Amino acid sequence: MKEYGLYIDGRWVPSASGRSFATTSPATGEVLATFGEGGREDVEKAFKAASKARMKWRSFPAPKRGQILLNAASIMARRKEELGALVTREMGKVIAEGKGDVQEAIDFLEYIAGEGRRLLGETTPSELPRKFCMTVRQPVGVVGLITPWNFPFAVPCWKLGPALVSGNTVVYKPASLTPLCAATLAEILEEAGLPPGVLNLVTGPAGRVGVPIVEHPGIKAISFTGSVASGKDVYTRASAMLKRVALEMGGKNPQIVMDDADLSLAVEGVLFGAFGTAGQRCTATSRLILHEEIYDETLERLLSRTRSLKVGDPLDPETDVGPVSSPDQETKILRYIQTGKEEGAKLLTGGKKLIGDAYDKGFFIEPTIFEARHGMKITKEEIFGPVLSVIKVQDYEEAVQVANDVEYGLSSSIYTRDLNLAFRAIDELEAGVTYINAPTIGAEVHLPFGGVKNTGNGAKEAGSTAIEEFTEIKTVFIDYSGRLQKAQIVE
Ligand code: NAP
Questions:
Q1: Distance of CA 370 from the midpoint of ligand 1 (Å)
Q2: Which of 119, 291, 320, 478 gets the highest tally of CB atoms within 10 A of its CB?
């Protein structure tokens, strides 16, 4: 078992407190590695290293910065099997999804590396003769990145890629459940050629590491992905210091199925959307909104498919659903299942913690389906586990009204063969992402990703918008007339 410190200024160093914590497998309880437990003092050290590295990294040509990301992508591609297994062992998603997490990171680094040859500004005519106008993009400075545990390779790369290619240096805090993936990523970036001090990794709890990053006066921008409760705290502290803040938060994503839909397709979609990653995706389908005409038939098919899902060892390629990621997650999900029963939702399948030999050392919950009424707590709050609420509606209008009546707005989906309804749904569903005839999960890295309402604050990650978070636009005027020209002043 490896013992890690903190990665500061290109070296692994012990935490100031001398304390450490372990990362364990949620399937077996195996201790995978230990990490230094960072604190405010370590964040200060990481900031100083990032600050010292800043000017040199900023003046390193952007295409060469991009090349380092490409190198990292190819190292990851070479090690994909091993890294996918690492994701699975540390976070618990099934092995195909573990490898998918790594593939998403590779795809994104390859995509964003090209930004090193763009980082586009604009040129435009001046209102005055012999004057040239343009904009250039500049890095923000030292930026703070804070990530969750559910995509321990992809989400960090969604932030690190654009931050680094734009010329920023970084203080990075990963989720305390997945520091080993983060440390491995730091090692890969070092091997890829990232100079010391450009990326500094401080592991440790939210209060001791996350809050000091958010509150550090020298860290100019914060990019956060996690729950709404944590995001509100991050936003409150950072905005009080007038920092740039980008927030990507939770979801309560609906899949609508209309009476004309291909029901087989819709059922396979919701199975993948609701129970993939044991429901622990920000885009997971947690509400299935069914038209009354196809309600019984869809439910029957869905229940039969759900009961056939294999829950167990996530490293076994035959397994459909792995463990949830921690005892806290397990407790929270089981509490929501209890709430669902208490508020009168009908438990159709699942609902229990799995026990017995293969399950006793981990956190396994049966794929669970409730027949629910819109408005119940389980239909409004993010559960972040393998729990689906099915809601019956009379028509399209009611389906959209139910879909929109939550505080979140990340992903959404509708299954229909009616082109008019599909386009109306694109207009009317309040979400950052809408899928037609596909489940609520399935982001592609070259498209912007992010939510509306309480899911986000307007920032979009990935795609052409990825660098917005990490660059400042400077407007430049070049007067080559040789005389004083006064804009807007008529003489
Ligand atoms: P979380 O508890 O909010 O934690 C996210 C990260 O923030 C962790 O690194 C955590 O540290 C840190 N943190 C928590 N409170 C903080 C604070 N007040 N100040 C600074 N840092 C703080 O979320 P999670 O349980 O890891 O992840 C699940 C959530 O993420 C779900 O709500 C999911 O929907 C959301 N998510 C959203 C997206 C998206 O793109 N919209 C993608 C993935 C996940 P510790 O780990 O040390 O507590």
A1: 26
A2: 291
